[in-house]
Amino acid sequence: MTLDGGTTAESPVVDVTSLKTPPAKQWIVTSSVTSVNTINPIRRIVEGMTAVPNPDKQMIHLSLGDPTVFGNYPPPHEAIEGIVDAVQSGKSNGYAPSNGYKEAREAVAEMITVETSPVTADDICLACGCSDALNLAITVLANPGDNILMPRPGFSIYKTFCGSLGVESRHYDCLPSRSWEVDIEHMTSLIDDKTRAIIVVNPSNPCGSNFSREHILDIIKVADQLKVPIIADEIYADMVFSGKSFHSVASLSENVPVLQCGGIAKKFLVPGWRCGWVAVHDRHDIFGSDIRKGLFRLSQRILGPCTLVQAALPHLIRKTPTSFHDDTMKRLEESALLVYEKLNKIEGLNPVKPEAAMYMMVGFDPVKFPGIKGDLRFTEMLISEQSVMCLAGSVSCNV
Length: 399
What we know:
By secondary structure, this protein is α/β, with parallel strands linked by helices. It is built from 14 helices and 12 strands.
């Protein structure tokens, strides 16, 4: 019977035993080039450490930027309210637009807008955490064979994303003697016609630094002169210590287009909720519609963060009182200064006083520790003797 109701002649029966079979093959299944090139240097080193904690002391993990680990930094009550309301409403159980609910994007736009760099919901693309936002930003700008500049010391995941894409990572130095300011001359020397973006992380992971307005303008000046966009990793936006001010790159950029990456993980103390964003700042339409369309296409690979978290986002952002953030930073600063003061008294350890975020870099003087071969070995001994896990600074420098 055919689709139009007619009939056809019966097909002849084929004797399958008479068919020739292809020669037998062996199973060969290998991982893709992309997966092979996806390497997280920090994870690789940490997982390769063989140090065994002191059984008489409880393990203290100080190597991961997760404020929830010890249970002393709970999220704001408004975060819980928002999630509970989202669950009970039953309105957020289905798929959201791949770039996120409009109401959630509007709330983000309101929070990050400043007079000199306003954004709307149409400029926001939600992502599964700030790391995913950074992945989107790098992927939308760079092709295999291109290069992207990133800080040293720096967050290793930038290199992880670039490696999987076949994009070269070029590391510009940050100077401990100047509170981790960028070596502008060195950064400039790395830029060529294949450079697609400069990643600027401020406040810094892993340095705990916070750039001045003037220094950010120096970075922007280079990007403007050489016509290179900036990817601003600002997951620690506003998380600065007393006497310091945070300035977003976009708020100071008059000409350079900026992809601003942020999220709720640190400021609202919910890293496991995996909700971040890319905000497109483009005063002179240099990106045109192409980059926005590209971000939207890339967002379709994952279809955005959890819809319950998206639904809770407007309540979380608009209702969390300023006092919550002030208290968080007060406690972080007190802890940071205490650790700095104690370490600064130990001969051979040279901490750089932090100004923001939740990290501190500590210099290791091998001359003062002749029996210890490098800071990685020092951190292994710290685990074995004191059950304290820190990340060797050289890991962040050799990204």
